[in-house]
Amino acid sequence: MENRQGPVRFLDRSRTIAPPTWSRWLVPPAALSVHLAIGQAYAWSVFKPPLESSLGLSGTASALPFQLGIVMLGLSAAFGGTLVERNGPRWAMFVSMVCFSSGFLLSALGVATRQYWLVVLGYGFVGGIGLGIGYISPVSTLIKWFPDRPGMATGIAIMGFGGGALIASPWSAQMLSSFGTDTGGIARTFLVHGIVYAVFMSMGVLLVRVPPDDWRPAGWEPARAAAKPMITTANVSVRNAVRTPQFYLLWLVLCLNVTAGIGILEKASPMITDFFADSPAPVTAGAAAGFVALLSLANMTGRFVWSSTSDLIGRKNMYRVYLGVGALLYLVIALAGDFSMPLFVICAVGILSFYGGGFATVPAYLKDLFGSYQVGAIHGRLLTAWSTAGVLGPLIINWIADTQEAAGRSGPALYTTSLYIMIGLLVIGFIANELIRPVHERYHERPQAAEATAAGRSEVA
Amino acid sequence: MTTRSDTAPGTESRHTGLKILAWLWVGLPFAYGVFELIRKLTQLFSG
């Protein structure tokens, strides 16, 4: 850090301290330029059929780059969080941009030379590091700029991650149809993706700023905010945070909320088709695709709307809604069966909006419990709950659906057991949320230590 | 202690153009994605 010279110094945290004229409303678009780009990961499925046909791959093999990417997202967020806190958001966004774009460029080379391992290494390993570092890069900065509305601020960024797939899915499909779906066409598509995403994300690198240490919004007093029982003015380091029961309770809450959401998201299209297969008006393939689109919209909107609502009603209450009302909505689906499609759709939309909201509200919950000192790094560690749920949710729902099908069941009966399991998981999550209390002061940083860290950052400048 | 609203007084106009550009930079692709999504969504009600 101390030896950085020339252009590399541009990335230093000290070079990103905002001048007095800077507007905090310039920071959310900087965050969005990263999250909208890396959210492309969820549109990987667009590339699967052309890769399979042009390189002769199986479905399992063509999913490898995405799966490795998600594993690397979890690992790099968990282990890179401390580096992100130390080096600042511009460094993190730059690393994310380089890794994510290089991933596409390596993939282009891999497809052009028919070396599929290069696609797995490029998009999955290198690009996956870009996903993890990019995901956590703006969180801590946004919370520091918006201490009065942390839920709204992180909700905007994390909504961007949901929105990234909405942009990439039609855009990538359009590009493949223009360039062709042979190896040359796919390689050109990857090449353009790498270049365009590098340009798009560079806006975030250039624009992001951290507030001066003594900055606060007008009219906002930390002590008044901390008068609310679950909000602290103290700071907890990432090292201490992972020793507290609150961290593990919140880990469980996130894991179970995500598992319950994935339960529907994973099987949305076959689920609505199976549910109403024996009804007078069966669901067409087009309507099922529309249902999946509606769930994506609910997932994305929930990230912003519910996370912003948590600023008003408090984080604990918000998770009571996600987990408690979520369990009730699952119960309605289980009991109503194929009674009413609009009722089924409304319940599924509610569940998916809570799924998205759960992701977006968690950084603000962490800030309430552990302070903003190393909230980005703590958030990174907590994202291992996402990786776990990403494996757990599909496993449960697919295994049970297969078992029920083998037992000769059809219609809603295929999913009834899964739905009751999801309700059970949400109830456990609800109890875990109820057990969350303010962090004991023995874990708090001494004020001198926090000041020394801030001074250290200035010296690095 | 530095206390401000969103910007220092009298400096709002300096960043108005940058704010518009920055929000358009992310807003236009996002609007494209939402537009494509809504097009697909209509199939739920027409299909």
Molecular structure report:
- Chain A has 461 residues and is mostly helical.
- Chain A folds into two domains: 215 residues, MFS general substrate transporter like domains (Growth Hormone, Chain: A), CATH 1.20.1250.20; 222 residues, MFS general substrate transporter like domains (Growth Hormone, Chain: A), CATH 1.20.1250.
- Helix content of chain A is 73%, strand content 1%.
- Chain A has 19 helices and one strand.
- The longest helix of chain A has 30 residues.
- The N and C termini of chain A lie close together (9 Å).
- The C terminus of chain A is likely disordered.
- Chain B is mainly α.
- Helix content of chain B is 74%, strand content 6%.
- Chain B contains one helix and one strand.
- About 13% of the residues of chain B have low confidence.
- The chains are: A mainly alpha (461), B mainly alpha (47).
Descriptive labels:
heterodimer; A: 461 residues; mainly alpha; Growth Hormone, Chain: A; 19 helices; globular; disordered C terminus; B: 47 residues; rod-shaped
What percent of the residues of chain B sit in helical stretches (DSSP H or I)? over 70%
Low-confidence stretches of chain A: 454-461
Q: Name the CATH superfamily classification of the largest domain in chain A.
A: MFS general substrate transporter like domains
* Backbone structural class of chain A: mainly alpha
> What is the averaged pLDDT score of chain B?
76
